[in-house]
Amino acid sequence: MSASVVSAVRAHLVSSIEGPEPAAASVTFLGVEPLDVLRFESPDGLVRYASVGCSRHPMGDPGDLVADPTRGPRAELVLTLRGGTGIASGVARTLAVLAAAPSVEGVVLLEDALLDLGEPLWKDTAFTAVLLGDSGIEALELPEPMDPVRFLAVVPITGTEAAWVRLRGADALRDAWAEAGIDIRDPHRAAASL
């Protein structure tokens, strides 16, 4: 069943994101099934990285004695960067680390979740955490009784922005970005400079 979920996710992403066929990288971690990261390059200069494999199994509360093999939230991650081709070497691994968090650490990936890696997301950046949100990609319905797969946007943030989220909440940070006219898809925005 998990192989069919992965195939359905890949097909859904390819049909939902415009542009040529994506490039793919496979990332493996000890004790975790392989995760793929697809890289979609579009004519508008945006590069989208999407995880495939995170939704293979439902996410559950790590405190539960027995994990439900069919029911529970499922998610994949989508990182959109303007002109993000030049930093590709670190991005695929970082996205795979985030996508592996439910299997490795029992994290449930939800909108407004703050994930702090405590180290730069890729080389020469001040981004050390991400904020999850709505990617705009429609959820993928799966056969009953499985929950649909949600596609969550991954927004890189700095330690200062992560502190803002902890103190005031995700919406307050998004409001501040909107007020300042910040393009959160710019991997070189002022907040990211070392």
SSE diagram, text form:
Blueprint: H1 2-16, E1 23-29, E2 32-41, E3 46-52, E4 74-82, H2 88-105, E5 114-116, E6 127-134, E7 149-158, H3 159-168, H4 170-180
Parallel strand pairs: 4-7
Antiparallel strand pairs: 1-2, 2-3, 3-4, 5-6, 6-7
What does this structure look like?
Strand 2 and strand 3 form a beta hairpin. The protein is an alpha+beta fold and 194 residues long. Strands 1-2-3-4-7-6-5 form a seven-stranded mixed beta sheet, sandwiched between helices. Helix 3 crosses helix 4. It is built from four helices and seven strands; from the N terminus they run H-E-E-E-E-H-E-E-E-H-H. It has one domain. 32% of the residues are buried.
The run of helices and strands is HEEEEHEEEHH
Give start-end ranges of low-pLDDT stretches.
none
What oligomeric arrangement do these chains adopt? Answer: single chain
Coarse morphology: globular
Radius of gyration (CA) equals 16 Å
The biggest sheet amounts to: 7 strands, mixed
Instruction: Give me the secondary-structure category.
Output: alpha+beta
Q: What is the topology, as strand order, of the major beta sheet?
A: 1-2-3-4-7-6-5
Q: In total, how many domains does the architecture comprise? A: 1
- Total number of beta strands: 7
Distance between the termini: 45 Å
Total helices: the number is: 4
Fraction of residues in H or I helices: 25-40%
Mean pLDDT, to the nearest integer, reads: 89
